[in-house]
Each structure stands twice: as C-alpha cells, then as structure tokens.
Amino acid sequence: MSQPFLVSVRSRSPKARIFLRSPLYTDVNSLTARGNDPICIQYLPWLQNATITNESNMKQVKNWRAESGIKGIFLVIVLLPEHGGPQGISIADDATIGDSGFGPIDLKAKTGECGVMLNSAPSIRGKGLAVEALDINFAYGFDHLGLETIDFGTDNNNLPMRRLLERKFGLSGTFNEEKGSWRFVVTKEWWAERSKAAGEDRVVVDAEEIPFDAGELTETETKAT
C-alpha cells in the first residue's frame, strides 16, 4: 500500500489569489456550510440527499487526510492573505472558499478525476477563481504527479460547470444519454499546448508533499471522545 501524503500547492504567478491544500480539522465549519448551501449543491444530488454536519465532516476530513494520494487527493481552496485569506499561521474557521482536487485518483494508471466547488458568495463567484483553481490542479496533476489524463463528469443540467470547461478551457465533452451526464477528458498533451500558448503567463506551481502521520488518527479520536 502506498504511503498517504498531505499536499499544499501554490502558483508562482504574482497574480495568484489562491492556493490549494489538504483539509484541516479547522476547515470543518466551512465544509459543512458549503455542504448545506442549496446553491453549492444544486447539481450534486448525492449531497442534497445527505445529512451533513460538523460531526460527519470531522470524520470525512480524517478519511481524506488518511487516504490522500491513495484513493484521492481532496484539496480545499484558500484565499492568499493579500486577497482576504488568513494571516500568518492563524487559520480561521471560514478560511476556505471552496473544494477541489482529485477523486478518485490512480497514480499507477496516471489518471484522476477532478472537480471544483466555490462558496456561493457574490464576492467569490464570477471572479475567475474556479479557472485559477483548475489551472493549479492541472499544473499539479500533470507536471508534478505525472498524470496523463484528468476527467470531469458533470450532470447535464450543470450548465455553469459545462460552460466553464467549454468556454474557459476550450474543452469538448461527450454526452451519455443513459446517465444524463457529460464527460470531459483533459490530456497531458492538451496541458502542454495550453502552457505553451500562455507563454510567460503559463501556470507553474510549487507543491509540498508531506507524509501523513498515522498517529494523528488516534489523537483525533481521543479528542472526539
């Protein structure tokens, strides 16, 4: 079994407004708020039918951390301090503005499935932050993890996601009538072309990967009792 690892990914661009990292237990409040926001889960029926609480998300964060790099790499989106994010080492409960990452992921097969969800606040949506988050995912997935393909699956009714992939990234999807969903496949070659076309504005990231400490599971369980 591979060793799980925790991740922090930052763009080198001076224009960067966000970075991505593995979830912390202090993220639980914001995760629960997104999971219960009708706008955030509008096109995610499996979340609409779920009971999402701080308690359930505490367990979810524990699983995401323990399985990071094995079954998936769940990442939260955080504003950089100069754009309203947490200052210094202090991490506020509402520090995260969204979720992203890869789930599932198969590092041996060099494939992963990606997605993105942002808070519904007008100060967050419609500002190009989803594009920025996905570009960071692409740079991390293709340039650091060595993935060859990254998939997106989205419901037919999820026009915002389809428009994001089609209009902002120029992708063409395949529609599955039986499932009523679209599948978009991004390749390493596509990313190389996008990076080449961007020139000096191409997205380059620095990724810090830290081996997961299995001892934190016992500590977390002790605190919860």
TrEMBL record:
<protein>
    <recommendedName>
        <fullName>N-acetyltransferase domain-containing protein</fullName>
    </recommendedName>
</protein>
<feature type="domain" description="N-acetyltransferase">
    <location>
        <begin position="17"/>
        <end position="167"/>
    </location>
</feature>
<dbReference type="InterPro" id="IPR016181">
    <property type="entry name" value="Acyl_CoA_acyltransferase"/>
</dbReference>
<dbReference type="InterPro" id="IPR000182">
    <property type="entry name" value="GNAT_dom"/>
</dbReference>
<dbReference type="GO" id="GO:0016747">
    <property type="term" value="F:acyltransferase activity, transferring groups other than amino-acyl groups"/>
</dbReference>
<dbReference type="Pfam" id="PF13302">
    <property type="entry name" value="Acetyltransf_3"/>
</dbReference>
